[in-house]
């Protein structure tokens, strides 16, 4: 059963949120209601993390399966000690280096913390965001805030208040509009209950930076190609962050990728289908004659720019009613790993490899 609410929208200055607005929103959190708010990564759908009924409402509003755990957001790193037990030595240097910021730590859950927060697991995922609105809301609420991304289950995450309303209008009590988020990609999820620690989801803190603190950190992903073992994070379902249109990804030498995308677009368009193309700025000119909807995400090596607009671009093409979306799969350095992961999930892991010898020729 869905959660239903009379959604109200509150506007705030993202850099210096007005205290009266934050106080009002915090009253909703204290009353067990749902408040969507901006973080530096994506918008979160927030509820009092220590109120199991409020947590339950988050799952219902998002139509999220009960086996997909939520992230708990705190305003002070010391709040961690009230939520988690058996805190490993890694936490202090990690918090020093990356908090507040887009790093989520998975730890042993303290016994008094509601188990539905963690979908019944014995662990808890915690992060301290840096966004002034998120921090002010948590502080004013005087409780940690559980918040998954503020999209409906499997849809691309919301990076603006308009995206939140698109998915959740009538199913969230308050939407705090603090403008577009800065990173546009979710936090990195690092599991500290395993030794050595494991990155369950690449995100805003890049693995190269984690390695400087924890040289032995591993990445587990069905998609990154360097998975050491199969232990996917709960809730990391294959189809995720997905547009309604079918997403087709291409990988290979740049020229081969461009011609595969052009040829495929031309074929679909000849069959009366509407085609969207996601491209790097450098390639946009190749596609202008096709009659496809084209979104240039940013310059090829500017992962920060591409990451910021990626989810919005998937939503925009959906809004234009395209049947298929064609996109290149970019390299996985730095933030590229998170971009690649989100694209692969949205495409259910399927990639067209072009311009390379097939294995039997090798
Ligand atoms: O940037 C972000 O992390 C955003 C903002 C709002 O903070 N939140 C977010 O939440 O992306 P969500 O629920 O969409 O993704 C959280 C993911 C889950 O899908 C799950 O894979 C992982 O974090 N996770 C949460 N709790 C976990 C746990 N106890 N053990 C392992 N993985 C966990
Ligand atoms: Mg999510």
Brief summary:
The chain has 362 residues and is an alpha/beta fold.
Question: Which tags fit this structure?
Answer:
362 residues; alpha/beta; twelve-stranded mixed β-sheet; five-stranded parallel β-sheet; 17 strands; 19% strand; binds threonylcarbamoyladenylate; binds magnesium ion
Shape: globular
Largest sheet: 12 strands, mixed
Uncertain segments of ≥5 residues (pLDDT<50)? 224-232
Give the helix tally. Answer: 10
How would you describe the oligomerization state of the chains in this entry? single chain
Strand content is 15-25%
Mean pLDDT reading:
92
**Helix proportion range:** 25-40%
Label the structural class: alpha/beta
Distance between the termini: 54 Å
**Strand runs, count:** 17
Tell me which ligands are bound: threonylcarbamoyladenylate, magnesium ion
SSE arrangement, N to C: EHEEHEHEHEEHEHEEEHEEHEEHEHE
Radius of gyration of CA atoms, rounded to a whole number? 21 Å
Please render the helix and strand layout as text:
Elements (H helix, E strand, L loop, with lengths): L7 E4 L7 H12 L4 E4 L4 E6 L3 H11 L8 E3 L6 H4 E2 L5 H8 L4 E7 L13 E5 L4 H10 L3 E2 L14 H8 L5 E4 L10 E4 L6 E4 L5 H7 L4 E2 L26 E6 L2 H17 L4 E5 L13 E4 L6 H17 L4 E5 L7 H11 L4 E3 L9
Magnesium ion binds next to loops.
